[in-house]
Amino acid sequence: MSSEKSEVYAYLLVDNGLLQESSAKYTEPSADSRPTWLEPIYEAKALEVSPLLIDIEAAYEGGSLDRMMELVNALKPAMHLSIIESALPLSELAQHLRRFIFIVAENGKQYTLRYADCAVLVPLSSVLSPSQWTTLTEPLLRWSAHDRANALIQMPPPIMEQTGAPTPLHFTDDQFTTLNEALEPDHFLAQVKQLRAGITFPGDACEQHAWASQAREAWRAAGNTNNLFLLSLTEAALLTRGEILRRRNLPSLLAIKELSSFRAKIRELAQEIEERRIRLLEMKTSSPETAQY
Fold first, then answer.
1. Do 20 and 135 share a domain, yes or no?
2. Domain DUF4123 spans what residues (predicted)?
3. DSSP states of 6-66 as a string?
4. Which domain holds residue 233?
C-alpha cells in the first residue's frame, strides 16, 4: 500500500510481452503521459514488451481502478500477473528489478530473463542458486505468482544468511538447460496454437500443459531428438485430449525416420481417436435413459 503511514506497498508485476491491446496504452515513450501509479521496467526502446510495475493503492486512489483491472483481467489464467509486497516505493522497486533484466551465460552472451511471466518465475525459484534467489527477492516481503489453475502460489522467501550474488546474474549451462526444459511444454503449446490459429483446443490450461508435458516425455523416452516430431505429437495430444499418448504403438510411431510419414500416421491415428470419441458420445445420447424407482 502507498499510504505515508504504512511501510508496506502492494504491487502488481505485469508481463506486458504476453499482452497486446490492453497494455499498449500504458507504454508511451514519454513518462509524462503515463499514469503515476505505473513504472515500466525496460528502457524506452523496449517499452512495448516491458514488464509493468503497478502501485495498487495509488491506482485506486487516483481513480484508475478500472484501468488497472483491465490489465489484471487481460488473461485467464493470469500467468501474466504476480503480486509483490515490499517496503520499497514504486520507483525504487522498479530500479531494483531492472538489475535482473539480463542474465549472462558461460560464453558471455546476454539473454533476457522474463521473470514477470509466471511460467518462468515459478521454476526460476528453484533454478537460481540460493544466493541468486536471495539477491532477487531480498527487498520483497512477499511474492505470489499465478499458476495454470489461476490460483496464487507464494514464492520462496529470501535466505537472509546468503551472500548476495553479483548482477547481472550469471547462469551456468546446467541452469540454462534446467530452465529451458521446464519451459519447453509452454513453448510447444504456443507454437501449436500459432500454427493452428483460430482453433479452440480441448481442455483448460492445466490439462493442455499436462498433455504437452506428457508428449515431451514420450518423445524423449523414444530417443527422438527432432523437435518437429514433438511439435506434431503435441498437436495430436491436444486434439485427442491426451488419448494418443496412451496408445501402445506410440514408441514405434516415434521411431519412424521420415517426418512426413510420421505426420501422416499421427494425424490418421488422431482422427481415428476423435471419430471413436464422437461415436461413443452419440451412443450415449441416443440410448434410452435408465428408469429409476
1. yes
2. 11-134
3. -S-EEEEEE-GGG-SHHHHTT--S-GGGS-TTEEESS-GGGGGG--EEEEHHHHHHTT-HH
4. 177-283
